[in-house]
Design a protein that fits this description.
- The chain is of the alpha/beta class and about 450 residues long.
- The chain is about 40% helix and about 10% strand.
- The N terminus is likely disordered.
Amino acid sequence: MSFIAPILPSNAPFSPLQRAWLDGYLAGLFGDDPAASPGHRIAATQQPNSPARENEDFPWHDPTLPLDERLALADARPLQQQLMAAMGQLDCGQCGYLCRSYAEAIAQGAETQLTRCVPGGKATSRALKELLAGIGNPAPRSPPASAVSPGVSSAAAPAPRPGEPLPARLMIARNCPELVAAIIERLGATPDTPVLSPDGVERPLLDALSQFCEIRRPSDQAIEVLSSRAHDLDESRILQAMAEGYPGIGPDDPDLLDLLETFPSARPPLSELVSALDPLQPRLYSIASSPKAASGEIHLTVAAVRYDKRARRRTGVASTFLCDRTIPGAPVPVFVHPSENFRLAASDRPVIMIGPGTGVAPFRAFLQERRATGARGRNWLFFGNPRRQTDFRLLEHAAELWAWLEDGAHLYVCGDAERMARDVDRGLAYIVAKQGRMDSAAAKSYLARLAAEGRYQKDVY
């Protein structure tokens, strides 16, 4: 069957590079040759649930493991697997790859950008640099077919078809206007000064910093630019040490304005600095609604990030863009990205859902889906803001939870990878060991078997 490919409206808020990629994606998605779609190429070459990949042994592919533990698990493996271990392990698609394919592209020299892994952040990019430094950078090759153009981290997708996982949502945020204005003032520039932005397009400084540059966490390359242009030798040395990842050097977790204020002698040419910043990456949110229950709508759970640090108000990029600056009824640029590794179980299977705070989002969608389809499986949701007095709910219901698992229940966890998911993992292992009368190693193997069977799934960030 032939379809007419939709095209983006002329006023859609995308850069020329993003527009070109999306037009190609839509043409491939709705045209006669589905293999022409970049999104299809990603699915075809990187399908995380394919049998060949499920059988591979990647013990580090767990986002709840600390980076040093993941690297240690891959220490004796080939370079591409060591590189994979340095990734955030979320397979979120924000970089245009999955963890394994991103590592393979770097190892083969087809990808030279080491800062694409948003969940891993600077820790990942620095680990990648160190691993490559040990063997010398591989010779660059042409980009692989599965790579997404810079500035576009995932494909726009239609509503999920029957049997597909409920998707996660990727949105393009905008930087805080007050922060952008303060940076422009500190640089002694004007908003309409033309600069070369990270996507290679010349545009006014205001637009570049607002929509296309990562200013919340400046790249190591941008910090190196500041170091090379600092007139004060001490400032230059500190900046260089920061760029190389030395701990305890310079201000803690600085944004671009912090660096400009702390190191006033660093004043590089505008385009040199701006083009060295990382592209502003989309932020990932789990969809909190089922298309069967909220037709034509997508619901999100968002906690606005606001805090004070170094005598200045700080805000989250995406959360305050949505909560404070988005006008009701106004269009918001988004991509919808399928969550391949977080699938709702068959309708007759019991499900246990653990999602504190905004981690409740996918479970709201799950419950709506089950109600809309008349699913017979039992549902059990653990939800609440983390507090010491409520952190033991799992342990209080240990016997019943164990009975559910032995009855074939599917277990889901959504929330913070570094703290919550790790604590839940430990709590579940304790419950399994105690209720199943096994030692800790056997309990961990039990949970690993659940994960291998698709019965223990995590949507963590």
